[in-house]
Amino acid sequence: MAKEVQQTKFLKPGKIVIILQGRYAGRKAVIAKNFDDAANDKSFPHAVVVGIDQYPKSVTKSMSLTAMKRRSKLTVFIKSVNYQHMMPTRHTLDMDFKGLIADKTSEDATQKKEAKKAIKKKFEAKYLKGAVPFLW
């Protein structure tokens, strides 16, 4: 008799992954929403990921406050990525993106812009606390 192999789903929201293909190759990202079956006009399993496009620069004590603020800025990206084009890490991030990202966020420009602003604020708050060193 053939045994049914049960796949464990380890690509869950909050999992930190590394993007392997495309414009953001090599960047770390967090899974915000996953679609294990084909959905959203895509014929493959995919996930909506949120990541940091431009990381903050290093800051020293001798810098002025304005220079520190300028160097502490970061930019974020939202992208729908095929499971084949991401590599999971062992780390997770306990941030909730449910209210910020809708099903069509990666296609709708105005919705995407608002979501990026809100996500940027969350990431900057985490960065200023110094809570997530492995994401930077």
Automatic annotation (TrEMBL):
Ranges for domain KOW come to 10-37
Q: Does the keyword Ribosomal protein apply?
A: yes
Q: Which domain of life is it from?
A: Eukaryota
Listed A to Z, the keywords are: Ribonucleoprotein, Ribosomal protein
Q: Where are the transmembrane segments?
A: none
> One cellular component GO annotation, for this chain's record?
ribonucleoprotein complex
One GO-annotated biological process of the protein: translation
Pfam families referenced in this protein's UniProt entry, alphabetically: KOW, Ribosomal_L27e
Is Ribosomal protein given among the entry's keywords? Answer: yes
Please provide, alphabetically and separated by semicolons, the GO molecular function terms listed in this UniProt record: structural constituent of ribosome
Family of the protein in this entry: Belongs to the eukaryotic ribosomal protein eL27 family.
This chain's protein is named: Predicted protein
- Please give the organism: Naegleria gruberi
